[in-house]
Amino acid sequence: MQPRDLSTHSVYRAGRGIEEVAREIGLDPDELVKLSSNENPLGPSPAAAEAIQQHATHSHTYPKAAHTDLTDAIARQWDVSPSQVWLANGGDGALDYLARAFLEPGDGVLVPDPGFAYYSMSARYHHGTVGTYQLNKADGFEQTATTVLESYNGERVVYITSPHNPTGRELPREELLTLADRTDDSTLILVDEAYAEFASTDSAIDLLGERDDIAVLRTFSKAYGLAGVRLGYLLAPPTWADAYERVTTPFAASELACRAGLAALEDDAHLDNTVELVRWAREYMHEQLQAHTWPSGGNFVLAAVDDAETVARDCRERGVIVRDCTSFGLSDCIRISCGTREETKRAVDVINDIV
Ligand SMILES: *Cc1c(COP(=O)(O)O)cnc(C)c1O
């Protein structure tokens, strides 16, 4: 007996955990600076951590009230109706719900290259086929309607990442509108705003009231520092009615995740501190790194090096973990997440020494 043919599927390779790397190079995990997964260097909101502790003793019940309360709180935050909020186990879980709700077997999707690996994985799990549009290094990885439309062929879903991972580039709003207008009525533009809190361009969320061909993805993993609890959501157009209820796993987000999310949404100070730190760190890296960097709207900076694998290894041996972008198809780039001031300075020193 065998599972179905999975030969076209790829394996998601997460960056290695800090304990694993520390053991390998014989350092204490506390001595390592981990800037490879775009995590929040300030940790979770203290209010969220407390909410998790407080509600630990309720873990035996299904998350009914918490799920509803968080959905309502998110709906209020964005001025949408609760039925438009698709809570999920991380943004990745929301991508799966979208594919479940949207794709018929054989439907095509269009994803960026370089880009976030899970778009195509999720589409393939749901029997979709995958095409790519290129973001070109020669054009500074610029994102425009044209860069996408050049490769567009009537696909059912077009994935846009803005700010884009790993390049940091954003798709300007007028380009998004042009793209949505020029694609077929049956094509959805999914705008992945995993890093939007750090960006200067406006969110696409306010477009949801006006049109039914744009949906927006958000996560608590980055700006809210809750990557470990797995909480994200999709915001759908109002016309999709009860599609979520028809595709969701029962209780898509856990009790503890919902409680953490509710507390995090109230903690403006933690969010503000995070965004301020990220802006400082981005600036610092742009100014101080002795390598070409690209403008970034995210909590990371992409930097050009000769050989990413070697540079990342040399950094690791000196206790600084950065992301080798070879798996994104950029074997001459590293991605450095914004750390605390101290971590960011140390990373820049180490990288400058190496390159
Ligand atoms: C981190 C990230 C997500 C969401 O991650 P989750 O932890 O599953 O919420 C989505 N898209 C991009 C581009 C990301 O970098």
UniProtKB/TrEMBL annotation:
Superkingdom of origin organism: Archaea
Cofactor(s) required for function per UniProt: pyridoxal 5'-phosphate
EC assignment: 2.6.1.9
Start and end residues of each Aminotransferase class I/classII large domain: 31-351
CDD domains according to UniProt: AAT_like
InterPro entries noted in UniProt: Aminotrans_II_pyridoxalP_BS, Aminotransferase_I/II_large, HisP_aminotrans, HistidinolP_aminotransfase, PyrdxlP-dep_Trfase, PyrdxlP-dep_Trfase_major, PyrdxlP-dep_Trfase_small
PROSITE patterns registered for this protein in UniProt: AA_TRANSFER_CLASS_2 (PS00599)
GO MF annotation terms: histidinol-phosphate transaminase activity; pyridoxal phosphate binding
Modified-residue entries (N6-(pyridoxal phosphate)lysine), positions: K222
Pfam families for this protein: Aminotran_1_2 (PF00155)
Catalytic activity: L-histidinol phosphate + 2-oxoglutarate = 3-(imidazol-4-yl)-2-oxopropyl phosphate + L-glutamate
Major enzyme class: transferase
Sections of the chain in a coiled coil: none
Region described as Disordered: 35-58
Keyword Cell division: no
Family: Belongs to the class-II pyridoxal-phosphate-dependent aminotransferase family. Histidinol-phosphate aminotransferase subfamily.
Protein name per the record: Histidinol-phosphate aminotransferase
Record organism: Halocatena pleomorpha
Gene: hisC
